[in-house]
Amino acid sequence: MEKIQMKTPLVEMDGDEMTRILWQMIKDELLLPFIDLKTEYYDLGLEHRNETDDQVTIDAANATKKYGVAVKCATITPNAARMTEYNLKEMWKSPNGTIRAMLDGTVFRAPIIVKGIEPCVKNWKKPITLARHAYGDVYKNTEMIIPGPGKVELVYTAEDGTETRALVHEYKGAGIAQGMHNLNDSIESFARSCFEYALDTHQDLWFATKDTISKKYDHTFKDIFAEIFEKEYKAKFAEAGITYFYTLIDDAVARVMKAEGGFIWACKNYDGDVMSDMVSSAFGSLAMMTSVLVSPHGYYEYEAAHGTVQRHYYKHLKGEETSTNSVATIFAWTGALRKRGELDQIPELSAFADKLEKATLDTIADGKMTKDLALITALENVQVLNSKDFIQAIRSTMENM
Ligand code: NAP
Ligand code: MG
Predict the structure, then answer these.
(1) Whose CA is nearest to atom 4 of ligand 1?
(2) pTM for this one?
């Protein structure tokens, strides 16, 4: 059989621990036998980030700007324990944070739906994709403990020194106060990423804030989305037969619970944090989610939504068997390959991505799965496979298709 040829390389960002092990198995069993795989390889494993003073993360993000499509393995975000474990020179920042800041993107997460793993919400028939704004608000706040009577004001000092003041509260006793901000540029690129992704995936877009209460802050989000939609996307949406729908966040929550899915739900930073955990756990598991960073400049970075599965890795190091779910990492590769196929007009490459995804889901629906899924499946008589056997089972499903 002839291998599928590629034109432009994918930016390949390798990672850490158990997901690094899965990464190699996926390449060996599911990709290299079928594709003449072209990648530009960046080792984002923590040891190499430390050796390069994290320059490798910056190089990988720049390569993504050059080629347009990247696939990333889960990576360790160092904390105090990792400083000693890996003997680090510095507590390097989260690679995801660095890459997101450089590509200026929005992260879209959607559940992978498979027969036998049913969502807890019984009317959810299609995926709900969550788009979370990843800048500002409470995540970049300034807080103050107010010890006793007095007043708190917001003061804006313009470059020419003029001050504008707004009273927050006259305190009669002790209390608390908080200041938050966001930037029009960041909200605009969030809006454009959402509109682009809706067109790309052919799904309706919902957006919600609390603009009735927050008449300036949240209202600005609503206004920026409305203005960009009117000017740049209204005609394109009409042509694609999809809609943009704005409502209040509490109304959105109520409607989502009654909906059947099949749309994108754009959320402000905090709402997105909370709602993505709710949606993903109601759909099954973090290992059954796709995650893609879409930049308003047209760069795509595909990844798994879960971490490096440290606990399983330590078992693996001791020579014990693991049953780690590779679905999200396989779908990161298929997402990237399909996008590369579209951009380079290689239909065989996109078709291969579809086939590998179908083989993965068919394998599970056929009762062959990893332990995490076996615990929640509605199927009976399932076969629990170890990490490697599951990947090999997918290969044999694919070869028999
Ligand atoms: P995690 O890797 O997501 O794993 C947490 C637990 O969830 C696991 O112990 C496992 O439960 C279950 N799990 C997650 N993915 C699974 C899979 N593919 N198959 C089966 N079970 C799975 O989170 P963590 O252990 O808290 O974090 C480990 C490292 O990942 C940290 O250093 C963190 O910085 C990093 N991280 C990276 C990313 C990223 O790069 N995108 C995201 C989050 C975290 P059981 O142990 O009960 O089986
Ligand atoms: Mg969260």
Answers:
(1) 309
(2) 0.89
